[in-house]
Amino acid sequence: MTDKYVTENFITQIIDADLTSGKHTAVVTRFPPEPNGYLHIGHAKSICLNFGVAADYNGTCHLRFDDTNPEKESAEYAQSIKEDVRWLGFDWQTHEYNASDYFQQLYDFAIELINKGLAYVDDQSIEEIRENRGDFNTPGKNSPYRERSVEENLDLFKRMKAGEFDDGSKVLRAKIDMTSGNINMRDPVIYRIRRLHHIHTGDTWCIYPMYDFTHGISDAIEGITHSLCTLEFEDHRPLYDWYLDNISIPNHPQQIEFSRLNLSFTITSKRKLNQLVENNVVDGWDDPRMSTLSGMRRRGYPPAAIREFIKRVGVSKSESVISMTVLEDTLRSHLNKVAPRVMGVLRPLKVVIENYPEDKEEILTGANHPQDDSFGEHEIPFGREIYVEQSDYKENANRKFFRLTEGREVRLRHAYYITCQKAIKNEQGEVVELRCTYDPESRGGTADGRKVKGTIHWVSAKHAKNIEVRLYDRLFNHPKPASLDNFLDAINPDSLTILKDALVEPYLLEADQDVVYQFERNAYFKRDKTHETDQPVFNQVVTMRDSWAKLEENSQ
Ligand code: ATP
Ligand code: MG
């Protein structure tokens, strides 16, 4: 069971029942993004559910672009969506569609509704329509144009299509019930006039169908069995069913709603993510701090870890905010298993080992993974001058500080014991160098059984490679940025720290540049795609430990 993409939930139970009863013999789902932005972590839930369910049941999942809103859609977005779905590990095979593929059929179905007396052309303005719709407490008012004859409606609708009327001057509406308790059923608009160039149909159409009309019919045309969508569409389900019940189409897919994925400290709205890009808060949709899939890819999140996270979150109908810690913990436990280890010093402090011969060099070895020998090992050069992390030295250290301070001995990972003899300061009083001695008998990290509690990482000064490291913190310093009047007020000013002096052992740059590495004791890092400079750039994927859990607890 554990190799399934989706663990059992109320949707798989419905599918099981449908297969048992013979209502369906195969499962067909669809993922229906609107190409008006880049996909985000919320979409990953829908992708893993739709493609995952299809895969688990040996069914099919279609990728359908919901391209009914020409003003906001672009081919660039559609391309990025395909890249992201593939990256997450899913495949729609030959089943790539656009809602616009069905514009002619949708038009014909609209004609059918008119012929049945179930749709009419309304000359009211959008404002009047809105006003006359009423609200939760007030029933709507019938449009003065509601009783037009079938002939008149057919004539006007055809002329709408032919471009005889101005944008916004007329709409086609379904004739349902202006007093319905469900506002979506109060004669919803089916078509509006919009003279806009469409990414696929160009200037063929000047009338465009609305989402609710398009979506269900597209599902039915494609033979979708289970149309899985988020809870905000629950109130639209009667309309989804009404359209399918009133046109001549054999299939009637079942719409099933589940709750959206909300992640703390994160925005999951393409519109708001777009604002971050437009306002230059981030440097593009794939900025590693973005909750977009392209940002996560660039940052180094493995797709398998994202799938695992979505699986952990599960599928239900209850609204909740998932803690960012859950995502980060999933990343950590995944990376702990798959990331090779290297040593990298982010903020270097020079160490001279006074009793180590000036011209001597040694090649030591380090395991690539402490728990998994199959990762092999690699060579690590050692010499008289090394760099250690600035934070591994403390001038006035108490007895619980097991790292470097004058007179204290520590173990250099994969190398020797060294004892700090003296700290050298510059004119500002800052420590710029440590003078140490080493124990030649302690190679490999053991000597005569004496206790050395601290182990620190290091790199050889002569051999180390300089890299730029980008440390990321959360982009928002509020757990629910979307709940604020202006989510931009919650931008964390310290979300990016650039360190240009970081040093790594040479092996890192010789090894595979496409995997995530653990810089021991520091964090997980992945090489950035950028080649702007000669200096390699590494992005911090996730820290070793969670430093935010407290803040989140306190603010809930
Ligand atoms: P956004 O507000 O970010 O534009 P959307 O729902 O309008 O989101 P679509 O492109 O229409 O974006 O979404 C494609 C599919 O992904 C839809 O079926 C939608 O329900 C689903 N989806 C979007 N956001 C989430 C989320 N946070 N959790 C789960 N599913 C989501
Ligand atoms: Mg949408």
UniProtKB/TrEMBL annotation:
* Source organism superkingdom: Bacteria
What positions does the record give for the motif labelled 'KMSKS' region? 267-271
- Please, one GO biological process term? glutamyl-tRNA aminoacylation
Task: Name a GO CC annotation attached to this entry.
Answer: cytosol
Q: Where in the cell is it found?
A: Cytoplasm
Return the InterPro entries for the record. Answer: aa-tRNA-synth_I_CS (IPR001412), Gln-tRNA-synth (IPR004514), Gln/Glu-tRNA_Ligase (IPR050132), Gln_tRNA_ligase_bac (IPR022861), Glu/Gln-tRNA-synth (IPR000924), Glu/Gln-tRNA-synth_Ib_cat-dom (IPR020058), Glu/Gln-tRNA-synth_Ib_codon-bd (IPR020059), Glu_tRNA_lig_a-bdl (IPR020061)
Q: Where is this motif: 'HIGH' region?
A: 33-43
Task: Domain (Glutamyl/glutaminyl-tRNA synthetase class Ib anti-codon binding): give its ranges.
Answer: 339-439
Occurrences of domain Glutamyl/glutaminyl-tRNA synthetase class Ib catalytic (ranges) = 27-325
User: Which residues are L-glutamine-binding?
Assistant: 66, 211
What's a single GO MF annotation on this record? ATP binding
| Family the UniProt entry places it in | Belongs to the class-I aminoacyl-tRNA synthetase family.
Write the protein's name: Glutamine--tRNA ligase
